[in-house]
Design brief:
Structural class: mainly alpha
Helix content: over 70%
Largest sheet: none
Number of strands: 0
Radius of gyration: 26 Å
Low-confidence stretches: none
Distance between the termini: 33 Å
Number of helices: 4
Mean pLDDT: 79
Order of helices and strands: HHHH
Length: 99
């Protein structure tokens, strides 16, 4: 989000706060502060979500399978498998590299 857009959003929030109903205008300073804080929060949330990857069901399923194998292996042998062992098991069981 550009600086101009952020400034415009802050200005719009302040103007919207000025036209609030009478009870809300009782304390203009608090009202304006709440508008600014709320706007900044929404801008921060929007910026924070930019570039985040969406969940990948195939990767999640692969991770779940590998974790289940690691748990089973640990219960059976008493120690954790190496990442190489997990990879070999996955390829042997499913015929593809883990996602």
């Amino acid at each position: 989000m550009s600086k101009r857009t952020a400034i415009a959003a802050l200005a719009a929030a302040l103007v919207a706060g000025a036209f609030a109903p009478a009870p809300a205008r009782a304390n203009v300073v608090v009202n304006a502060e709440n508008a600014v804080v709320g706007t900044v929060h929404h801008i921060g949330t929007a910026i924070g979500s930019i570039g985040k990857k969406k969940s990948n069901p195939e990767r999640e399923e692969s991770t779940q399978r590998q974790n289940a194998y690691k748990t089973w292996f640990h219960k059976k042998y008493g120690y954790n498998p190496t990442s190489e062992q997990v990879h070999e098991w996955y390829v042997r069981s499913y015929g593809v590299d883990p996602a």
